[in-house]
Specification:
136 residues, Alpha-D-Glucose-1,6-Bisphosphate, Chain A, domain 4, seven-stranded antiparallel β-sheet, 3 helices
Length: 136
């Protein structure tokens, strides 16, 4: 399992407005330039900058508690049984949010440590891009 958390200088509602849509990754994640929904909005087809395709299924969406959970159906990652959650939490300061991105998976062809490091890096980079979106 890999988990990354970052503090964002914006209210939880502002952050969720940007990242809470299942089709919103291109709005804040630079290495995902496009996302297309299918199956009534339950499946997203992501294109990466290097031409790979990632297909993910929305498993749980909770607008009130500001989180969603998704699974990977198809991706160039050395893992199976991948499931992740993106969550926006409140802090004691109403103008600050804590955003957590966590995922569980089974590594295939690499060590568990290598898989954890891979996703920790992806989550960290993504959350740093999200943080930057509120600084610009």
């Amino acid at each position: 399992m890999a988990t990354t958390t970052i503090k964002i200088s914006a209210s939880p509602d502002q952050v969720w407005k940007l990242i809470g849509g299942f089709n919103s990754l291109p709005d804040w994640l630079p290495h995902i330039p496009s996302s297309e929904l299918s199956q009534g909005g339950r499946v997203r087809h992501l294109a990466t900058l290097d031409g790979n395709v990632i297909e993910e299924r929305l498993e749980i969406f909770n607008d009130k508690e500001r989180y969603y959970t998704y699974s990977i159906m198809e991706a160039p990652f050395p893992v199976t049984n991948y499931q992740a959650t993106i969550r926006v939490r409140e802090t004691f300061d109403s103008n600050t949010s804590l955003v957590e991105w966590s995922g569980s998976f089974t590594s295939v062809g690499i060590s568990d440590e290598e898989a954890i490091n891979l996703f920790h890096g992806l989550y960290r980079g993504g959350l740093e891009s999200l943080q930057q979106a509120f600084l610009d």
